């Protein structure tokens, strides 16, 4: 199995004092921290498999917090982003929230609020990575089905009864039951509820392109 990287809090801010103070705070509760003075440096070192969260200043030279967020949004997954903003940067932070930032904190922020937000963001990252992994597993199971089994899978999950499936596909009911059994086995579904849930997770239009 692929080893999961230990969660890390990544702080990106061009202000040395801010970076250092946040690092000390985060390390005080036993979390791993890495800091960068620019978004450019971070992107050079970026590993999409790294779990945890980002704490990013919204206003930075060359690549702003908003621009960094847009670049990361092009990835299939990335750690949740906590935006830091000064009073005059609140409108920018609001835009970041609309584009998917996890939270924004206005400077100067309460240390306890930051720690709580960081913990929530790390949990969010774990949840979204688990969901992505599950969806990938479901897709792999679906791709293992034959074309005839995919037909039966789709009809079952659209509420069509075995007898009606047999009529629609011009096959015997026993053949439908055999294919249905294979679908359940290959999709690793313990019951019909599981099968329907997996079906809803799939974007069949996208998969069939």
Description:
The chain is an alpha/beta fold and about 210 residues long. The chain folds into two domains: about 10-130, 3-Layer(aba) Sandwich (Rossmann fold), CATH 3.40.50.2300; about 145-205, Winged helix-like DNA-binding domain superfamily/Winged helix DNA-binding domain (Arc Repressor Mutant, subunit A, Orthogonal Bundle). Helices cover about 55% and strands about 10% of the residues. It has ten helices and five strands. The protein has helices spanning about 15-25, 40-45, 65-70, 90-100, 110-145, 145-155, 160-170, 175-185, 190-200, 205; strands spanning about 10, 30-35, 50-55, 80-85, 105. A five-stranded parallel beta sheet has the order 2-1-3-4-5, with helices on both faces. Strand 3 (about 50-55), helix 3 (about 65-70) and strand 4 form a beta-alpha-beta unit. Helix 6 (about 145-155) crosses helix 8. The protein is elongated. The two termini are about 30 Å apart. The mean pLDDT is about 90.
Major β-sheet strand ordering: 2-1-3-4-5
The structural domain count equals 2
Q: What's the mean pLDDT score?
A: 90
> What is Rg?
23 Å
Shape designation: elongated
DSSP strand (E) fraction?
A: 5-15%
Number of E-state strands: 5
Whole-Å distance between the termini?
30 Å
CATH superfamily of the largest domain: Response regulator
| Structural classification | alpha/beta
Helix content: 55-70%
| Helix run count | 10
